[in-house]
Protein 1
Amino acid sequence: MSAFGSRARLVLGCTCVAAVGVLGLASCANLDGLDTGPADGAADQAAQKDAASEEAVTADSASGVDGVAEAGGDADATVDGALDGTADSEAAVDATADADGSAHDATADAYAPHDAPEESSPLGAADAADTADAADTAADTSSPGDASMDADSEAATGTWCTQQSPAPTFCADFDTPPLTTGWTGTHATNGTVALDSTHFVTPPSSLVAATAALPASGTGQASLYKVIDTSDATVHFEFQLSVTTIDPQAEVVGGEVVVLSPTNTDLYRYSLVLTATSSEIQEEFAGDAGTVNKTTPLNTAFAAGTFYPVQIDLVLPSAAHPSPTGTLHIGGNLLLNQVPLFDGAAQGNLEFDVGAQVFPKVAIGACQTNVDDVLVNLSP
């Protein structure tokens, strides 16, 4: 598939922790024994009969108390058994937690960069399970109620961008109006961009980008872009991306890196493109023979309404880097590891785009994405 037409831009796309509590309940009963002394002797026969009767009553009372005490002992034994069962349940929970921890460690090792393949490949069954776990975690942390920081704590400690150390080349967290602060401009053709205070990673807001329903060969753009004049060749570009609405026939570019000529014409594009069921990297190179394209399938779907962390690391051609490469992480998973860039890419000024852009070949419905916490770092 190709989202480009005459132009195209990049789209982005990120575990669930469950806690189990065990409640133990213990109770005990204490009973005091009763002591009775012997009856006084009497001289006459009637008094002796009374004394004998008293002793019989006292013996019966003592026997009743002993019976209650035995019943209390049985109750204590029952409680002890319940406590032992609770302890066994706690041990079982501990064992489960240990197993989960081991599985998590194994998953983390599987996605370490040194274990990743040098060539791009579709996710396998294990990778798909890990991606689902990452989606669960992203869903937990992306809602306003479960965000990693609440509005009060952010007001006290600063926004996500002000907390980055050392300071990045460029940062935008959409938490300080107006929306376009720090950006070079807006692409808005049959689309709109705005602040969204209902769906974000860090409060109080994110970027929401929406494109209208379009006919075939239409153009829909709703994105922010940042142009940086630079000769740096090492690029780190990260952001959080959520696909809220996507037409089944649409290909949405949520974010991209564009290499520009000195006159700001496009030389090379590295774009993340999403569909309703999958995703891919599209590269576009403008050479002497015209514009050529390359598509690399990722086979990774973005669950609707879930923020995914996206990290793009490019090494562009230079004297120090004669072999340009691209590395891609989505949802914490390494999907492409130092894959050679198409046609050697290019070097020049850089443009970074986030939002939603569509260039349909058939009629499509409206599409919408949310973006939060954008960061760019450049180095030689």
Note: Confidence is low (pLDDT under 50) at residues 4-151.
Protein 2
Amino acid sequence: MTDLSTTDELFFADTALSRDKAEAMTGDALSDADDGELFLEYRQSESIMFDDGRVKSASFDTAQGFGLRAVSGEATGYAHASELSEQALARAADTVRAVTHGHSGAAAVPLSQTNRALYGDDNPLSLVPFEDKVALLADMDAYARSLDDIALAGDVLMVKDPADLDMRGHPRGNLVDALSAPSDAPPRIAFVKGPMWADAEPYMDGLFAGVMEKLGDHAHEVEMTGVFDDALDCHATVMMANVRANIGDYCTEHADKVRAETVRRYEQGAGYSAEDYVKAIEFRDTIAAALDRMFDNYDVLITAAAPGEAPRDLSNTGNAVFQKIWTLTGVPTVTLPKLTGPSGLPVGVQVIGRFGHDGALLRHARWIEGAI
């Protein structure tokens, strides 16, 4: 199959837009521009969540759309849509054509050719049967039950894949070596409660008082206030705005196929403006910087992994409030299920490490695991 025939099949065979019409409308929209392009996107994604010996959720999504860009002098116009139709392309053309008003000219140098194939014809999602994917997750679920398992699995997964253009250039691995490296001294541990402790069950204070007693002089309780007081609101702004921007079309056009919780987050995202989002992103960096400074005096932080003991059934995974600050700032964490709640269900001690120090986190977590 040629590149053009693949393009025709993906973008024009079952849509309200023909290739000839797309070329003509794009040419007309960019006729007075110095540069520009029509970018067509067809994306499929699959997600399978496997926990405690069973598949908890599975989803398969297909999205397609386009982006149209025009460059005129120092001005750039861009428009995009999640549907492929003449009407959508016409609206986009009107938007980008505005940057050419009052300007005419040509590119000073010939434009380089960039239409090269980056991907093969095979769809990687269809190469492995669903049953085999579930079997692999079952093996991982049964295997990754200790710090050694996590280190080994992490080293296997945290490897640069040259074929994955979205992957970080330098993933941090070597977890097995870091975990097995000798420690010069016990870790310096800070016990933090932070704004999330307001959701903790009453018995959590007593459980963690016991943890602190076992850790002795190696751990100190440290206040997590100041910029952290608004960290949960910052996380909500970033998450809700991203939900609305990235999967808003699904929530409006296919609400019956989207979980009610996701629709609720989409609706909540309507209350955030672009200014709110930009300010939240900037504030996130402030929070991350303040968090990083805490590691100047401590090797790891510890806190609860959840407001209380594990849920009684598998209908939900509980309240994730104790993960939000670490998710927002991108620091590594690991949970040690060392405590027991009043119903006999496990309570996790969450250990948080410095950004980029995953191996050191596992090594310090091993010491804490043995101490408590």
Note: The first helix runs from residue 3 to 11.
Protein 3
Amino acid sequence: MCEKSALNQTRPEEGREIATAGMSEACSKRGIVLLLPVLLILLLASMGPSDSARGQAGALREKERQPLFLYTNDTEGYLQACGCTASQVGGLAKRATLIQQLQEKSRDLSQGVLIPVIDGGNLSDDPEVSRAVLESMRLIGYKAVCLGKRERELQTNFLVSASECGIPVVAFPAAGGVGTTLSDKGAAVHPDRRTEGVTPYVLFRAAGKTVALISVSPTFDASKELPGGSLRAFLKELRTKADFIVAFCQTDNAETAGKGALDSLAGLVDLVVSGVDGTHAPESGVSHPATMISGVAVVPRAPRGYVGMVEIAANASATASERSATFFGRLERISENLPANDRVQELVSGYYRQQQQRLLEASANLREEGALNYEPAPKCASCHEEVVDRWRNTRHARAARTLETRSRLVPACLKCHSEFFRRTATFAPKTEVAWHGVECATCHGDGVLHSALRDKASIQRKVPEADCRRCHDRENDPHFNYAVYLEKIRHW
């Protein structure tokens, strides 16, 4: 063909001379077409790296970081998303799945060893719920749990459950002080772990490093003197056993409530996991360098509904000035689309079955409603019949029946789904009033004076959004919109 023979049989200079001298119109057009890819490549090269190249560079940067450990915080009794609304996050069974996925994804980067999982504490203020959470942690394979505010409230009950589940409880200093020496396993202050099972630290290996984990309160003071010596001295001794010391600090905001602890920890630990900003929903799946506060590298706690990951740079250094570039924090959202881990799901379901059976057995003989400290919906109907009839067609009126179909007639759910339970702490399934769900008194007040005096001032007519958000919170109803939802239950 014309263009092929010309391109194959002439040098580039001769080709350009022939083209300018009067090549046929067809040959000229086809030659330009063949030159276009070359020109395009030159143009893109002059514009800098492409999106693809930038993506490859980002992947290389990610490979330069290695996972150090995963962590969770503040379960606060949230065992499972209740299913009342779409897009709910969290729950132990889906948390287990996400942790497994993150561990499998990171296995090659951590020399084939699953990266450790730590919990920062505050499992629940209920000993039975706390036990269920600990059982799930045993199935998942948690390395340790830190002693939070809720655990301190439960005291021995929690420590016994943790010991029976084989999960070390970390608090520094441990109750009663710290030991005079630090063993490689983390010397417990009291040898009887069933009653005093708190250890001042644990050691674990990850990313080729030895990490010492401690847990401190917001009022931690490293200069405090104990019978066995100062806390500062013990931390310096611990430094000889670990490449890095990581501290979990039990505070919501490291820059305010926990600043005293950070000032005290400066120069003694390498990283603190603590609250930084709880006002905004965390960004999921993005790694950020640690924030330097009071000379300490800080990554945020993982709020309920998220799993956190701490990463270290491949050239990790313990130099104080480089710690913000050494540690990275990442939060992963426990999406509603994640499948539930079968073993953990069965554990949670078994707990709910047990709770429901216990509640129903305790209230099986309650047949009489007795004296109530609020006016139930049928009493309101004596004056507001049309309003109550419209309420009966709303989801609020069916809220308790919804739990029955899901085998979730348990206190944790009934407190939002049944006004009768909220006010009496019982359920009484053989009485009609127990099944009224979210009724008049839930939103407008008990109505006792209003019923007796017929006084409009004694009832709350307009319901503030804050009242709704006691149940429609971020975890149970993440997309709650006050104006939209108000129309869904319109009955006035």
Note: The domain at 65-344 is CATH 3.60.21.10 (Purple Acid Phosphatase; chain A, domain 2).
Protein 4
Amino acid sequence: MTGTEKAKADGKLTANGMADGSKTYNLEALEGFDKDNLSAADATGNGIDVSGYASFTLAKTAANFPKGGGKYDVSTLVTDDTNAGNGTITYTEDGANSTITGGVLDVADGDKASTVTVTITKATSGSGDSTLAAFSRKVTFTQASTAATISGATYNANTGALAISGANLPETVVGWDFTKLKLQGIGTTRSDVTLEAHSADTSTADRFQGAITSAGTVMTITAHGDKRTDLNQILHKNGTEYSSSNDYNIDAAADFAGLGADADSTIAVTVSGVGFTLSKAAAKFDSVAAKYDVASLVADNADVGNGSISYALTGTSLNRGTTVSSAGLWTINTADRAKNDIVVTITKAASTGFKSHVRKLPFSAYAGAATITSAAYDYSTGVFTVVGTNLPETIAGYDLTDIDIEGAGTAVSLTAHATMGANRAELSRLSAIGFTITVHGTLKTSIDAKFDRDGTSSTGSAGYNFKASGGFIDTSSTADESSNTITVSNHS
């Protein structure tokens, strides 16, 4: 077909493929369509596969611009750009006062109460048999019924990601004005940071880059380089506040997200990824325990490897022997083992983008000595589950070589705690009232030989017992050698 006949067909067959949206292409044949006028009508089921358009699809055919007017990146609506690179795409709009520049629709005040239709056209490309016809689609824009509001935000100090949540937020990044957002916290030289305009230029190290996480409800702004450092200097403690009178906050000026967005100076920010957290709020040591692994108290160490961690002790008339090693091991001096006013201060030094981070944790001694009351042994897995009172909370407080396993024949002594090696005993799940020991290799074989059946004694009536000599916690600890019955299960 050519001329007017082709134009008529083009008006019906408007996109590549078998359909255009809800419109399915079909060739309807009337009765007598053959040259002898003998054929019956064939009106349905004759699909037409269309090609030859410089085609693309749209993410949506209707969109909202911010209440009061604002910007929308209409280029984000183009998806599946067939024959990309051939046939330029242009954007036009029918608003009396609106403009489109560089694919960005700017709805001015005079058009904010009306709908604005944007026509997206891909130009003709190619030549001869390779010609692709021009292709157009229309998107209708209407003003959002409600102005944008922010309900809250989160900030991750490790990634620099500020995720802002709300309602009726701009659907594209250009609808935002980051320069109207101020982060408020507390720092040594400043207490607020005003954001700068969005930049996706990866060659620029120090920038704020926005991305729509969920259209209309979540915008994520990532601070890069020195910009992340600036934010981390004032948002340097996990949670919603630095202290009871210093909340983390976003102060949003009017028109931060379109010309109708109201100012809001009370937007809470929840911070994560800073420093470290502690595994407990207070700790105890046995009155005769020789060592405590203070480093084991540090959990969720954000920014691992940056900012060294150090440990210090304070208390009334502490003996010098209570200093903590650089590895976090506290050797408890004899003169201090009964004190209840010891505090360990754990400090993570400042590093690039992070302020120093300090936590304090009180220590006190148990009222009584450590005791073991019973144990269970799973023959199939080699796991001892031990129950007691006032037991050391860290592996450093134990000496497993002073523990013997009694049963049939000669008792078997445990080896020192180890996490690697074929033949070893491994401590875990420590608390004041119990711990587990998993035995491996030939050590397990030797211990299994003590237990020739399930229960609490052997076939020869030898009692199964967990014998703790005087040094199982420290050389001065009280021995707990008898009546620590072991109950064996899962014997093969």
Note: The chain has a mean pLDDT of 86.
